Amino acid sequence: MLTKEQIAAMQGRYESIATFGSWRCEQLKDGNWVVVGPADENGISHIIAQCSAWKNKADFIAGARQDIPALLDALDEAEWRTAALEQVVKHHSYCVNFIACCTFNPPYGTDVCDKWQFDYERFAAGKEDE
Fold this sequence. Notes:
- The protein is 60% helix and 13% strand.
- By secondary structure, it is an alpha+beta fold.
- α1 (4-17) runs antiparallel to α2 (55-104).
């Protein structure tokens, strides 16, 4: 499992080191493969990596330019969805416990029911960690 620090380091490397635009593989006249970045303002594409005779390595490196940001975005979305689902589960748990407490421990307003209601109100207001 990746830590938040590892993910942040990946994001930082991508944002600070990777050139803008897509990368592509090109074969040189000598048969070697290189990864080439987008053309600069003078129309010149610069070599990003030399992969000798290994086209598959050049394809991998060129693809990483598009793949890494897509994976980081998917990871962000998965983390957001997980956090949202955790909130739904907490909300459901509070509701079920409060209803069960008040149903099986009449009269309403017992100390236990009051605590569940207090906890839920803090959760609903986003203050459960205070």
